[in-house]
Amino acid sequence: MRHRTQRIFNAVTAVGACVLFGAIAVNADTVLDWNTIMLTTIAGQNPFAQARYAAITQLAVFEAVNACTRQYHPYLGTITAPAGALPEAAAATAAHDILKFYFPSSGATLDAALVTSLSTIPAGPAKDEGVAVGEAAAAAMITLRASDGSAPPETFLPSSTDPGIWQPTPPVFGPGILLHWRNVTPFGIRSSSQFRSSPPPALTSEKYARSYREVKEVGDVNSTQRPQDRSDVARYFAVASAAYVWNSVTQQISSAQSLSLSAEARAFALLNMAISDGLVSSMETKYYYVFWRPVTAIRAGDLDGNRKTDSDPGFTPFITTPSFPSYPSAHASASYAGREVVERIFGRGKHPIALSHPAIPDVVLHYTNLEEVTDDIDDARVYGGIHFRFDQEAGARQGRTVGTYVFEHNLHHLKNDDDN
Questions:
Q1: Residues 255-283: pLDDT tens digits?
Q2: HEC profile for 132-166?
Q3: Counting runs of H as helices and runs of E as strands, what totals does the chain give?
Q4: Of 144, 165, 199, which marks where a domain is finished?
Q5: Is residue 166 part of a domain?
Q6: What are phi and psi of 72, to 5 degrees?
Q7: Cβ(223)–Cβ(318) under 8 Å?
Q8: What total number of domains does the chain contain?
Q9: Can you give the pTM of this predicted structure?
Q10: In a domain, 376, yes or no
Q11: What are 322-336's pLDDT values in tens digits?
Q12: Which domain holds residue 89?
């Protein structure tokens, strides 16, 4: 197991944290502003829905900006803009229209944010044309995703109680949720099964026993083997979704590197495509193998046929176990997909990052590179008692391949197009 002490501060960093809509500064970066507004607007959704809404929003922003700047291959290819249309107006309008469509209860606040954002742009035909482009991009993305499999919801109940098969978990003991997410249309990969993980280790294997013993030792709510910094990361990543984490990371890196509006729009589009597709891929794999969670496995350790897995009928995870199968870790699949894209765009070197979340204001995590972020996400799920280490490893492999494919097959720079 890995231990890495985090510096914990009793403050919430300004960069990467959700801010009030009215705090948009004059002449601030439109793409970054509306990415922050997006995170605030989608915050009440489950992590899978958050990722889908984020991808739709950022693709609409990209398509609107790119129609004006014509620097990259489009995603839709149906949006045109007259010469001189302002991409800032297009970006703000596209994000606003997407978010208002899916979250009408936030309409008044979003309208006010749009007024503030557009007020920094000089009036005239170029502004009006940019607004029209943003409206068209948003409408096209909404139409594209209208029947993408994200509804209606479906649940799962196991037909077997054999060892290794997922069973409803405490405290709810309800059916498996988000069964339908395996059928959500991906944004950038070909299908949800394209990067299905290899099977989990056999219950009788040494690898299984090693992972079993680790989560049993450090993941129980009363464990004395979990350092405070591992408790902090477990608590943090239990509330901070992959979409929240990696959009916050990208905001900070993008701000430090001063990307152009077009490059920022592309970066956030690719990032959120990869995160959402990582989650879709993970759910396809989860419900293909329907592998049990640690809480079920450890309470029934005497039934798995492995002499190295002693049971503990009272095992209770430090954080609440999600109501769906364990293998692979969804947070890992999404986060490694996001990390792959971020590293492809910004490089694998040092990136000072501070992560905070309004739901857990006593914890701020500081990093010097992106590997440290995913290391903590892996530890968070094991020390939280909800995943085996091999769940994280499989999610990492899946996420890396998803992120690689998304980056290599979407939104290429036009000047680098060697195929057409």
A1: 999 899 999 999 999 999 999 999 999 99
A2: HHHHHHHHHHHHHCCCCCCCCCCCECCCCCCCCEC
A3: 13, 2
A4: 144
A5: no
A6: -130, 160
A7: yes
A8: 2
A9: 0.93
A10: yes
A11: 999 999 999 999 999
A12: 21-144
